[in-house]
Specification:
425 residues; alpha/beta; Rossmann fold; binds pyridoxal-5'-phosphate
């Protein structure tokens, strides 16, 4: 069985029998509920393909589910291939291993003496790494349909839903369009005009969410939750609502680990910009798996980066000092709650008021000897400017915010790695 387990309450979900998205016990207590893959593949092989969803298929639970349900390897290749063709029509190209290179000019600009590896996700599907998360979810849905598994009963009659007005929404709209699956996007009234226009072009149904009198919390998220309660499929990247979304993002870590293995260099530290936490959580899990499967002799320190305007993960990390993570998972509200003030930053894509998947990130930081770092706006701006000046990568300030962390914490290591994501629009 391909099983998922809640890292907070231990609930188990058979991914063929029920949707492995939100923990069945998620509502009404102080446990941190997120579903994670329970039984990882033993010694998974790496293919020779350049599409990460083919190359690392043996590492992915939807692939294992397909095989267990009796579908041949070629059926997976067909599912990935059909989506790849459709992505090419919708977005110009499908998923390919993205480039990573040492950027000496960028390193020199900050007086860094060792290698500075930049993984470039700006050319990925829909312009950021976000589509990786949602491709993982879509492949799971397609496997359920194709293998006629009970978790997939009537699934086509249910719409997809996401609360986002940035890279995640664009990624969801591209993947949903490629799969010809209707999508509802819940966005705030001040969402960017160009994002709205592109979402409409991609056929997404937009709902503008005004704050209702007396209501607390993000209105877009509240409307999204209502849609899901009414039957929509959570197609966002928040681990609490869809643990399986983290999995597709792990392909990014596999690609990096394979390249580090090939060149024989493991950076001392990996700096990652954190909003809702899916990216850092996927990297932490993916690198741990790569290490367990012999690709990495050691883990780079995972250093997570937030801006001074909104740093709920850094706040949680301080409170976790000396506390056992298993205990912390049972008392979520002591560590994670919505940021109280309305933040602003040049890196506006990482201003999520909660780091939904904080627990798995904390586990990754502990396992690797990492930490959090909080950057100021001057460092965010300097990283953005340097990225544009000293590389040919056109990344947004959100997408270069990991580098701002390296500026703020030069003592973290000689060789470092960052991810540039989110093409500047
Ligand atoms: C370009 C870019 N990088 C990083 C992040 C952070 O990802 P997460 O929200 O999964 O922490 C985002 C989130 O919107 C993003 O758009």
């Amino acid at each position: 069985m391909v099983g998922f387990r809640c890292h907070g309450c231990g609930a188990q979900v058979d991914a063929g029998l029920a949707l492995a998205f939100r923990c069945p016990n998620a509502d009404g207590n102080d446990v941190d509920h997120v579903l994670v893959v329970d039984n990882e593949a033993p010694s998974p092989s790496i293919g020779s393909e350049t599409d990460p969803f083919l190359r690392y298929r043996a590492w992915l639970s939807p692939y294992r589910l397909a095989r267990e349900a009796g579908l041949p390897d070629t059926a997976w290749a067909d599912l990935v291939g059909q989506l790849d063709n459709a992505l090419t029509t919708v977005d110009g190209h499908g998923f390919r291993v993205t480039p990573m290179a040492d950027r000496p000019a960028l390193a020199e600009a900050f007086g860094l003496s060792g290698a500075l590896f930049v993984k470039d996700e700006t050319g990925n599907v829909s312009g950021s790494h976000k589509a990786r998360h949602l491709m993982g979810v879509m492949l799971y849905l397609r496997v359920l349909e194709t293998a006629r598994l009970p978790a997939g009963d009537n699934i086509r009659s249910r719409r997809l839903a996401i609360a986002s007005c940035g890279n995640a929404a664009l990624a969801a709209a591209v993947v949903a369009r490629a799969a010809n699956w209707p999508l509802d996007v819940f966005i705030p009234p001040d969402a960017d005009m160009s994002v709205k226009a592109r979402l409409r072009e991609l056929g997404a149904q937009i709902t503008i969410c005004d704050r209702r009198p007396g209501e607390t919390g993000d209105p877009c998220y509240l409307r999204f939750r209502e849609a899901v309660a009414a039957g929509a499929i959570p197609f966002g990247v928040q681990g609490t609502d869809n643990g399986l979304a983290i999995e597709g993002g792990r392909t990014l870590a596999f690609e990096m680990a394979e390249e580090f293995h090939r060149i024989g260099t493991i950076p001392d530290a990996l700096f990652v910009q954190v909003g809702g936490g899916a990216l850092a959580s996927a990297l932490a899990q993916g690198l741990a798996l790569a290490r367990a499967n012999g690709l990495l002799p050691k883990l780079p320190k995972l250093i997570t980066v937030q801006t001074a305007g909104c740093a709920p993960l850094a706040r949680a990390w301080e409170r976790l000092d000396g506390i056992d993570l298993a205990t912390a998972a049972k008392t979520r509200s002591k560590f994670m709650w919505p940021w109280e003030t309305t933040p602003s930053s040049l890196a506006h894509g990482i201003l999520d008021d909660e780091t939904y998947d904080w627990w798995a990130i904390a586990e990754g930081m502990r396992a690797s000897g990492g930490s959090t770092v909080v950057v100021d706006e001057a460092q965010v701006a300097a990283a953005h400017r340097a990225g544009r000046t000293h590389t040919d990568i056109v990344a947004s300030a959100t997408g270069t915010a990991g580098l701002a962390g390296a500026i703020a914490k030069p003592e973290a290591g000689k060789q470092i790695a960052v991810i540039f994501s989110g093409v500047e629009r």
